[in-house]
Structure formats: C-alpha cells, structure tokens
Amino acid sequence: MRGQDAWIADCSASRRMRHAWLALLLVSCGGNTPSSTFQSDAAVDTANDTAVDSAAAISAACAARAREVCRGFGSCSDLFQQMWYVDKDACAAGEQRICERDITVPGVVDALGQVEACTKDLASIPACPRGLAFLFCAKARPRGTLPDGTSCMYDEQCEGGICAGFGPASLDFPKCGHCARRPQEGDPCSDKKDECSLASTTLRDAGDLTCDKVAGKCVARLPLGASCSFADACSFGTCTDGKCVVPPTGGMEIKLLPKGAACEGFTEVCSGGQFCKRTSTTEAGVCTDPYSGGERCYGPSQCGHVNRCATVPGEALSRCTDARPACAG
User: C or N: which end of the chain has fewer Cβ atoms within 10 Å?
Assistant: First the structure.
C-alpha cells in the first residue's frame, strides 16, 4: 500500500483529493403458569443484561478508538481531520458517532474485535497517527462475507477483499461502492483501465498495483529511487531515465481555509466541517458552516462529515441525516 503522505501529495498533484451495534436480542415473554413466567422473565433479564453489556462494550471500544484517531489533531499530518472537524473534541465525538453507527454494517467478521485491534495499532504509533484511519484500520483484517457485486462502503464487508469505487474526496467519506475481488500481484492484464488498481472506497488499494503491459501481468508499483522500465511503474513520482523520481514540480500543497474565506481551485479546501458554498458558476464560493441535521441540503459535503445529504422518503428533496448510507446495509 502506498504511504499516506505520498498518497496525499500524489493525489494533490493530479487534482484529486482522496465507523456492529451488535444485534440486540429480541425475547418474547410467554408461558401460562407462574413457573414458566418466572423462567421467561429470567431469560428476558439475561438477554437484557447481554444487550446492555454489548452496547456498553461497543461504546467503550468506539470511544477508545476515537481518542487514538484524534490524539494528534492539529499536530500531525491530519489534513482530513482538520477538513472534517473544528477541534480535537469535535473529532473524538464525530469519530465515536461514526463508529457506533457503522460498526453494524453487514458482512464484517468480528467487527468489535476489529475496532479494538484498530485502536491497539493506532496506540502503538510513537508520536501520533497520521493521515486517514478508517473504522476497521487494524493491520490484520479478515475478509468479509458479502459476495462480489454487493453494495458496500468498507473493504472489510467484502468476500473479495475490496469495496471498489470512489469519487473525489469530500466530507462524505468513505463513499458507496460494490464488493469486488482485490487485484493480486501476478494477475494477467493488458491495457484495460483499473485491471490492477481498483480504487477502494477506503483508499487502501488505490494504485498499489499497476499493469506491466510487456509482461502482461499486475506488478507492485515501485518506490522512489527504484529502477523502472515504463511510465506508470512508480508509486509516487515518475519513471525518468529508468529511475522513480519526484516530479520536478513536486506535489501541490493543500491549504486549509477558515470560515468566511473565499474558496476556489483544487489546492484550497474549507476546514472544520465547512463546505464551499457557491451562488455563481463564475465567482468564488465562501467557506460556510454545514447544514444541521434535518435541514435541506443540495449535495455532498454540505452536512459535515458525520451527517450526510440523503433523499428523504416520500419527499422530492434531500436533508442532512446521521444515518449511514443505504449502500452500507
């Protein structure tokens, strides 16, 4: 997988910027005698205790993960965190909400265990986490149970190992995709687009393989300084004179804009969950606070990072909601 810092720089240069409530047990009370009623009540109590314990475990696990994800807010390479949240507290609250909401997505094997493992991995980083940390961010990740073609939002839902497809980065992230087989090194390829580098909704597989058209197979992209033999061989930079080198212009620096700032272009983005509100196609927009839950919205990014702009059933309009997208299950 390509390094996060390299990914940010690379995607910037190319002008593209790139969270189970465990099931609560439903128990029906029954029986016509005092004895059976007593037994049923006991069963209900046990089930309720289990449900409470599960909810408490999930809340605790999500809170711990959120603290680790956000502990370096403002001091690490956390471009997306600063795009999405105003401060460290808002980051932790948002990440916990997303975790508690999305941990029940179908297909994920041992979702609670994966969140806990993610937290341990993040805590092992000496200084602070850098870059993106999606819900199931553990280094060792079991594949999911959803077959290829199924709607998804996280790679961990999918039997094939990848939830493929994403658009330009925004506050609505990760995005909807479909389960697919993760391309493998050595797979046959020609010149068909995306044969070797299906784009993951969580960015894990965006560009880590490329097609060596001469050999006719997928190969790993090469690090800086490695010898290369074709234009698209390098993980970052270009293949120049047989070596992977940084392009002469380097990567574009992304500038975070404050509230009320004029916003336009690809290298300037609004911070703190704001979106670039435009009233004209010919003039710059203005960094504006996101719409609140229940308010009408008109497109991605307008509801902040936790809420999403979604169509309201029975209404011909969209509103901000904190429900996860239908594609996630």
Answer: N
- d(C-alpha 66, C-alpha 318), whole Å: 29
Q: Write out pLDDT tens, residues 13-36.
A: 332 333 222 222 222 222 233 333
CATH of the domain at 196: 2.10.80
Rounded Cα–Cα distance for residues 123 and 115 (Å): 12
Report the 10 Å Cβ neighbour count for 268.
17
Give Cα separations from 7 to 129, 222, 272, 291 (angstroms): 15, 14, 22, 30
Q: State whether residue 28 is helix, strand or coil.
A: coil
Pairing of strands 243-245, 268-270: unpaired
> How far, in Å, CA of 43 to CA of 66, rounded?
34
Q: Average of pLDDT values for 166-178?
A: 74
Paired residues of 222 in beta bridges: 234
The one-character DSSP state at 25 is P
The owner of tokens 């809340």 is: 59
For residue 208 the two structure tokens come to 């880590």
Pick the closest to residue 174 from 210, 215, 137, 212 (CA basis): 137
DSSP state of 73: T
Q: Is 277 exposed, middle or buried (0-12, 13-18, 19+ CB in 10 A)?
A: middle
What is the per-residue burial (b if ≥16 Cβ within 10 Å, else e) of 67-90? bbbbbbbeebebbbbbbbbbebeb
The whole-model pTM stands at: 0.75
3-state secondary structure at position 260: coil
Q: Of 221, 239, 263, which residue sits at a domain end?
A: 221
CA distances from 278 to 15, 225, 288, 302 (A): 20, 43, 10, 11
**Is residue 85 located within the same domain as residue 120?**
yes
Question: pLDDT tens digits, residue range 299-328?
Answer: 888 999 999 898 888 888 999 999 988 899
